[in-house]
Amino acid sequence: MSDAATAASAASIAVDPATQLLLSASLAFTMLTVALGIRPNDFRFVRTHPTSIFVGFCAQVIALPIITLLMIKSLAVPAGMSLGMIIVACCPGGAMSNLITKIGGGDAAYSVSLTMVSSVFSAVMLPIAILFWVSMHGPASALIDDIDIDRADFIRNTTIILVIPLAVGLWFSWSRPALATVLHARFMPVSLLILLALIVAGLMTNSDVIATHSTRILPLVVLHNGVAFLTGGLVGYLLLKDRKKSRALVFEVGIQNAGLGLIIVMAELGGNGEAALMVGTWSIWHLIGGFGLATFFRFFDKRRRIATATAD
After folding, report:
1. How far apart, in Å, are the Cα atoms of 285 and each of 82, 181, 199, 221, 254?
2. Ordered DSSP codes for 34-82
3. Please, what's the b/e burial string for 224-250 (b: 16 or more CB within 10 A of its CB; e: otherwise)?
């Protein structure tokens, strides 16, 4: 057995068929919740701001995975952790990024539209994107082989689970907007509870992995998340030339829908423990980092307003 296989078997979460079905249903429910929050105005923003949307989209789906691969290779990250980092980098922006963007003084409309675009793209392309970027890193690709994942089944199953709820949610958002608003408000707490339950279950069933790798997992997550924030900020600063949009892009790239990635790890990728812990830890940390950064931005803006008022 290869080193990757040994690592996978030593740190895997057993997922029986009933649990896998439940996880798949949770994945569909998460995407339905996201779709119910999409509004026609989000698409109109895309039509009126195509360049900034394209720049933000590329920062999320191209720049972040590339930077992630460079980190993995330069730091010699183990296969399971590498898989988790790649999955996070491939996930769409999270809904929390919209709230944190508002708190941090960014362009909220731009943030919402970017979240919508990345979510729609991920519903169709997420499994393909994961496998593509995993193929760029030998140990992670070998781990997928050792887990014995049928790549075609993974693409087909995950796409179906994501696309159908997306289509249903968009239909409600367009044809029954009032009902969609009510359902979104009620479903969002349930979706968050599902994520919390998965994180708690992962912590309880992987105590040995946590004990072995915690000193490396948390620093890696903090570093990876910090690099993601920085990537969004640099791309925005260099290409958007708009402070509010640049600030929104910081959070769109740094706040990912890691809950979606965690369910994919559990339901479709053999429940690899190291990958699940990487994604689960990101699910917690990116909120801490995001709110902390937004608070810093608010403090910075306040100091700048005071300095301007004093100068006048």
Report:
1. 17, 28, 12, 7, 11
2. HHHT--HHHHHHHHH-HHHHHHHHHIIIIIHHHHHHHHHHHHT--HHHH
3. bbebbbebbbbbbeebbebebbbbbbb
Q: Report the distance separating Cα 71 and Cα 303, nearest Å.
A: 35
Give dist(CA 7, CA 21) in Å, integer: 26
Question: Full-prediction pTM beyond 0.70?
Answer: yes
- Mapping DSSP onto H, E and C, the string for 134-149 reads HHCCHHHHHHHHHHCC
Query: CA-CA distance, 194 to 211, in Å (whole number)?
Result: 24
How far is residue 256's CA from residue 283's CA, in Å, rounded to a whole number?
Answer: 8
What would the pLDDT profile of 291-304 be if each residue is shown by its tens digit? 999 999 988 888 88
Q: Which of 274, 275, 288, 276 is nearest to 225 (CA)?
A: 288
β-sheet bridge partners, residue 12: 272
Q: What is the amino acid identity at position 213?
A: H
Question: Residue 165, Cβ neighbours under 10 Å: how many?
Answer: 22
